[in-house]
Amino acid sequence: MWLIFIVSSEVTVPVSMQEVAGYIEKQVAYLSGGRGEDSSVIITLPECSAFSDIPEEALAKVLSYLTLIPRSVSNTSASPSHCIAASFPGNLHLVLVLRPTSFFQRTVTDLGFRFSQEDFMLKMPVVMLSSVTDLLRYIDENQLTSEFGGTLDYCHSDWIVLRTAIESFAVMVKDIAQMLQAFGTELAETQLSEECSAVEFLLLSHTEKYRRLKVQLNEALMCRESSHFFLIDYWLLAQLTDMEMAFDGFFDKHHLKLQQYLQLLRYEHSFQEVNCFSVPKIARKHTDGSQTNSVANMLIFLIDLCLFQDEMSQAQVLILHGHQLAAGHHYAMALIVQRCNELRHQCDTLTSALNTKRNSLTQAQTLLRLLEEAQRWCDDGAYLLANQQVDKFQSKEGAQAALRDIEKFQEAAPPLLEVLYCGVFQAHIEKTFQKHSSVQALIQSRQNCLRKLADKHVRPIQLVVPRPENPPRAKSPLFSPKHGMWWCNINFGSNYPLFFSHEFSQHVMKELIETERIYVEELLAVLLGYRAEMDNPSLAPLLPTSLRNKRDVLFGNLPDIYNFHSSVFLQDLESCLESPEAVGACFLERKEHFHLYECYCQNKPRSDSLWRQFSDCPFFQECQKKLEHKLALDSYLLKPVQRLTKYQLLLKELLKYSSGCERASELQGALEAMLDLLKSVNDSMHQIAITGYEGDLSNLGRVLMQGSFSVWISHKKGPTRVKELARFKPMQRHLFLHEHALLFCKRREEHGENADKTPSYSFKHCLKMSAVGITENVKGDVKKFEIWYSGREEVYLIQAPTVEVKIAWLNEIRKILTNQQKQLKGLNTFPRSCVTLLQSQSRCRCLLLSQ
């Protein structure tokens, strides 16, 4: 019996169980699983009488096979010494030879070793053992089988079954690994199409292949439930499990990427469809005035706009879908968010355009409806006058009946004056007004005559034959020869337009005084019904604590506005009732008082924000209930702004019919003063929205102009020499021209339900007007001009939206520079050197004004 210790092995020829199964079953050599002191593997070669008959090649395969096994389970083998030395593929650490028990066999063994010992000892050390007890000195009994007196359990048939199962399982694991690698390579090298149908087919085919591979993996892992599971190599199972986990993770990522790519393709397709909407499309729609001359056409246009807005809802749905994709951590999140922002900006622009168009169409529809009603009333009035029987007026009763018919007809007159104050459809308005004036004058004349006839008997009405020199008048039913003419007919002489203009001016003045009284009453109701009630102890529980100290924010300087109108301005207007043309002097005299509205409008955004926060407060609901107001407080807080715009409209109407009077210049001055006030209020509203400016804006002087421009900047001097003038895309900047500085800001607007509708302006740059010069004309574009700073160290190329805007800005800048030059000429008390330097700077700034 031979025992061999193997330290290491370097096998190059792979051997399977199938090739050496016959010799393994004969127990030519076997592995019991035992280990030596230095963990060397023990290969046992039992005593075999036919050992010499085993081919050396077969013995080499057996030993090679057993040598491979210690890497995972255990290993192999032996024969006579020279065969072992020649066939063993590993490095032998020690050979233990246990002599046979019989005397004859022991003698043969000793003789055999004497003849081969010299050659054998050159390759490995050999120890001859006489008994099993001697063997225990080299190997622990726990590492020896029972036939050597050890306790190690070993069954050769079970070992063969184990090795066969392990090799079969290893082959299956290798095949699965190759299939997974091939499928992974296919997925990685797949070219993605830009067609949704192709990507959908790719997604389905990859999923089906993945499902089939998963079935094979699950079948391989079913060995866990077999009766031989404890025989399978745990390392192979772990390897198979790791491959399954890695493959699942890889395919999940690939599958998710394909799904997200398909979502991106569909989103891009929808984006291109929605992107066909544009502002010019809306702006061009329904702009032909010839098509908007009837209420029916206006109704059709409004329906078209509603349908167009329904189509825009697709963009809102697409924005929501994009946000959902971004929230799902889509790999193209940046692109999707960019598309959403583009759509949101486009939707906001289109919504604003649609609202503007809808409002204008609604107003035009209302206007046309009123004009049509006025036209019908005029026709009905002319028909009434033409069909009254003249012979019945000879009696007092007949005259009174006709007078009642006319008075009843006038009660149903449409509110034409409300329409005449707006400047839309001027041609239609003037035509209707002329017709209304003519009919009204005829009715007035007829009423005067009928009142005289009703009060006393008069001689029979004499018919007057129409003058032949006015044949066109006979075309109208009002002047038909068969109806005749009144003896007290109207004289359409040269005094009639002046008379009617005065009557109309008086009517407008009455309208101004009456609305002023209503305005004062509404202000008083707000101050007493809301503002004063905030100090009422009985309503204190209904008033939020955070609102109690913000009365001045909510109402602003409304008490000052009320005191001015109730104590001063209303009395001024009432004194002008009989002489409407004198109202211009009232506005000019009280011009400074109207600056109260500037403070009120500057506080209006804070007031609106506070109202939105507490609009549902029970306190305001209770106050509204006590006042029996149909509208909430915010509608009344808007009255001062509406009243300010109403003044200039009324002044325009008065000026229109007072062009020939002596005090028309005062009306013109009052109108210009109110327009300047409106502009100043609007500019100040924009100025308070400037953020990021470090300093006091009031130190820059009054805001003279403000507006949005396209700006290119060029730094032609200085250490950096940065030049941005060649940029194709300009910067969009909102410019504020003060008396002493020019501010460059960036307009910002917030969107959403709770966002403030008033835009804000982020401060970017400030130019002192003392170092500014201008170039009025720039080659290539009549809307462009240059503003240069510090002797052209910085040049700002500015493009105005229109030529008119450019001219207006240049005029204001020129005034500032001219005033600065005049101030420099008046500095006689300055040292001569300082004056010379300042004058040279002034000449430098004004050098290019005439270019």
Automatic annotation (TrEMBL):
Residues 504-684 form the DH domain. One of its GO terms (molecular function) is guanyl-nucleotide exchange factor activity. Gene3D superfamilies: 1.20.58.60, Dbl homology (DH) domain, Pleckstrin-homology domain (PH domain)/Phosphotyrosine-binding domain (PTB). Residues 702-818 form the PH domain. Residues 1-17 form the signal peptide. GO terms for biological process: dendrite development; intracellular signal transduction. It comes from the Eukaryota. PROSITE patterns: CRAL_TRIO (PS50191), DH_1 (PS00741), DH_2 (PS50010), PH_DOMAIN (PS50003). SUPFAM superfamilies: CRAL/TRIO domain, DBL homology domain (DH-domain), PH domain-like, Spectrin repeat. It holds the Pfam family SOS1_NGEF_PH. The keyword Transcription regulation does not apply. Residues 1-156 form the CRAL-TRIO domain. PANTHER family: PROTO-ONCOGENE DBL, RHO GUANINE EXCHANGE FACTOR-RELATED. Belongs to the MCF2 family. This is MCF.2 cell line derived transforming sequence a.
